[in-house]
Records
---
Amino acid sequence: MASILLVEDNEMNRDMLSRRLTRRGFEVAIATDGRQGVDMARAGHYDLVLMDMSLPEIDGWEATRQLRAAPETQDLPIIALTAHAMSGDRDKALEAGCNDYDTKPVDLDRLLGKIAALLGGA
Amino acid sequence: MKHPSAGKVSELRHHLRTPVNHIVGYAEMLLEDAEDAEVKAALERALTGAREALGLIDRAVGGDKPSVTAEELMTLREQLRTPQRAVVEAMHLVLDRAGTDTQVASDAHRILSAAARLVEQSTEPTVAATVKRPMAGTSARILVVDDVEDNREVLRRRLEREGYAATAVVDGEAALAAVASGGYDLVLLDVLMPGLDGPAVLERLKADRDTRHIPVIMISAMNDLQVVVHCIEAGAADYLTKPFDPVLLRARVGACLEQKRLRDQEREYLAQVNFVIEAASAVEGGTYKAGALDAITGRGDALGKLARVFDTMATQVRAREDRLRSRVRDLQSEIAVARRSTQSQTLILDGGNLVSGDHLAGRYEIIEAIGRGGMGAVYRARDTELEEIVAIKTVRPELLTDPVVVERFKDEIRLARRLTHRNVVRTHDFGEFGGVYYLTMEFVEGITVRELLDTRGRLAVGPVLAIAAQLAESLTLAHEQGIVHRDIKPQNLLLDADGVLKVMDFGIARLATRRAELTEAGLVVGTPAYMPPEQLLAEPVDARSDLYAVGVVLYECLTGILPFEADSPISLIARVLNDAPRPPIELNDEVPAPLSEVILRLLAKKPADRVQTAAELARIVQSAG
């Protein structure tokens, strides 16, 4: 069973997404801010990170950069989640080191497709 | 007007989209599990509403939009109300069908709270702040009323520079028309104008329910101060003198708008309080629907908590009422069966001393005798003065030979006449005619619990609880008024065809219980089966003595036998004083254990060991089952 680290500060988003992923058979761990997300990702063995971009402490862009800089997480697949449906966000996310990018509201099937593509290739 | 920067717009869009995202996520999740076709359709409607809301938000504050105005936000807020309503209505249906599924209910509540935030968002400070200049609320709409063009324009332009949406009109009539069209947060009103002057406009605004909450700042020349005082007394929020000091203008306008914002919040709060109160009336009227308070239960404050608690309680009350109704229905069918077999029996009863067609006291025409007991006879009669059917109970002359007893009896009747309750047979009058004492009372077409038991044997638990609840209610009222019945027994409990129980003979029981003392005079001894030990021992009785009798009645209703039976009154009394009754549950295994225990408690030898009040018994019975 693949394990996913969900980094999300909004309680409802967290509850929703973690439940929906659990129902699809994933094991979901949760971090509620960027710093905790980085700490958990480096300490644990996750198959993939779902990273909200607007986070307290350190934001998702910075958290992603830190994960890419650390040897133990430099190859960890990261999907950026953002509500900012701006054209530049996708490039910005990929530039920061994310493997893929999705916008909220999350289209679960689309997201599952992206997760499967990343995990399948790993 | 100052526009927010592109970064601010994207932040604003994020704020607006977040609740929509929550609606979509939870609705999709619920949809995955939904089985009921109507619930599925409702969830689809919620999703359509949410997508519509997203479209509106993207159009108003879309990705490439560099700026947004307060007006555009106001428009968006109005537009969002339609999809919001669709979501809320859909969730009410989902909640109605959720039943005991707490996960579904909790997710639906989350959707509702997100829907509430959807429209709040565009007015609440987090969002307003992004379109505000640091010192003033740009979204506020201000109406300037002044007949002098220079003043008017100076003021309007200055307010616009402060970031407000200002409109100017030239006279009082135009001002009233503008305010009536709605949307203004503040009025700056010149005192001296031709036609309708400032004070007159103020008076009209404050007299109208729809406009009285809009703050008004009076604009005056230095020499109008007398009038300004009058205006403030009449409801003006503040005043400004010409020429305007920009700092003062900014401060007073800002303060007024802040006060209005707080008042609006308060008004909205009170409106929701009223909504809760309406819900309370709906509960009373039996029209409350679970989930009706969803717009309020999402609040994090005390009102939200009140609404949540209320919703739970109201739902429980309704369940309890439904339970009671079903018990009464069971009781009704028992009565219907019993009546069919007792009707003929009633007619052959001995008619006492009076016969059909006799007149009593020139007022009551006897129709038929309907019963006869130790006290005298009971007749159905016509009250020829009020053209009403009444019951007349005659009292044997031997019982009322002592004038002291007669006086005391009259006192009791006076007390009993005050009892007005659907579960009490009304006592009308007490009189004497030709040596016969008589009581007139409400005539109830029905049968006694005695007759019911004689024809039906023991009763099912539901009907017994219906009897118990009504008996407890009638005794609660009587005991509160200091009246102890002293002779509760199945013969004194009437049931009409609707299953309504009515307790008879309040006030005359004292006379009846004197029979024990009068035994030596050769009068009939009533059965002591329903009397508690203290009454048999001629010790003082109180409300708890009635509760013992209730215990015996309920025991008999559930088991078909008395708690104590014996061949002679003496051995019966000995058993009542000394023996413990067998628990009803041993005689009828359908009796719920808690009910069996309550009945044993009612039958305790010592009054202090019984259920202490009829009100307490009513509560126990209500929550039983």
---
Amino acid sequence: MFKYQAKDTKFHSLDPRSKFLWFSIIALLTLFLENVFVNILLIVIIFVTAKIAKVLKQAIKTTLFFIPAMFIVIFLNILLGATLIFGVVLALRLFIMISGFQVLLSTLHPSELIDALESFNLPNELSLSLSISFHFMPIVIDDIRNIYDAQRTRGLEIEGIRKIKAILPLIIPLIVISLRRAMDLAEALESKAYGSAKRTSLGRLEFKKSDYVFISLCFLILVIALIVSFR
Amino acid sequence: MIEFIEVSYDYYGQIGVKDINLKIEEGRWVSLIGANGSGKTTLLKLINGLLKPKKGDVLVDGINTKNVKTSFLSRKVGFVFQNPDYYLFSNSVLDEVMFAPRNFKSSDPRRCAKEAIDRLGLNKYVGRSPLELSEGERERVAIASVLSYKPKYILLDEPTKGMDYRRKLEFSKILMKLIEDGHTVVVASHDVEWVADNSDKIAVLHKGEIIANGPMELLSKDVILNKASLIKPQTIEICETLDLEVKCRFKEVSKECLSIKQKIQSFTR
């Protein structure tokens, strides 16, 4: 989940800024337009992109994991007096953000992510922290699963009302493991003289012909979505 | 007895284990060896129901793991994970080791915990937080926390990681004592030397399949070792160099060497 997948595809070879633009347009459209058809169109676009980038399996796996959360969103909205359509739109937004983010992170190498963030004039410390936190997500998810399994083998019941009681044996190991890993990482960075001089980059980001075509397509989608929703 | 019948498991299309047929008898030390990603941990997780087979059946004392919860199987099957930090959360080592006996409603959790702490030589750390111990010590606390409820089958994933040679010897003695007491030990390990010195049987895994299963002497076969990317244990190397019958345990090999030495001495006299 949210793990980079090294694949030889046209989408992987795009400039990281183009991929950021793709995700930004999708995120903005889903956040600002309440039209159900636009949201369905965005889902289709995300999954077609995932298919082209050969990360469809990961995208489906991640979104399926969050399906219960979507039902909770719909249920809570109905409970609080909102219409069913509004609840569905909110759930679709969650669906789009998660699946889009999954496709973005599966196709964006950590170093590409840093390069892209730095090209937006973000300080290196900030772009490195952001990149690390994005790419630590799958590791933390693995940790949660392993801690859950380890405590279950020691007889911890994690079902029904007992879930509340089970929080401490799950949360404390997760915090300890994450802190230990963060300290190891900080030491590794320091031992490689991180921060001792201004960093330079090996590769330079450059838009290719395929990027211009892709960006044009992204803007075309933006225009179509705006026409559909304001017609 | 633990029995694998035509068991296969995959992680979303990626092979975990494939067509496994294996019987693990009671009161034995069985080791699963193989390179990284060969399926050792998957096999262990299938035994205590953390993973359910996608094909075939795993039977633990006749109970199909598909039909019962992990928390039920855990009373019989203890699992020690590779990373001790997955367990530790209590304020003291004693509380940590008492955690499982309490969950399993043991009649005297404190006594069970003290016994396990004694076995693992952790007496001087009883009141200390397990989180502030060294990695080797944390590993021992994790093992004690599983031994405390005395499961019939004890599964250990890379248990010698972070242990020095002396600690490994002590740990082997603890496991041997458990086997004497009627427990069954199943170890997944890279540590071929340690495995060769202690196990009764081995199963060699390669890309999710068992390529050899039987007595320790299988570790002398180059074909198996090369396929599984393993190095021959030193004891077997010594036996082959001295043209002796293949033996895996250090004690047996040193006994053989001693008798050769005595023969040479008597001949030269």
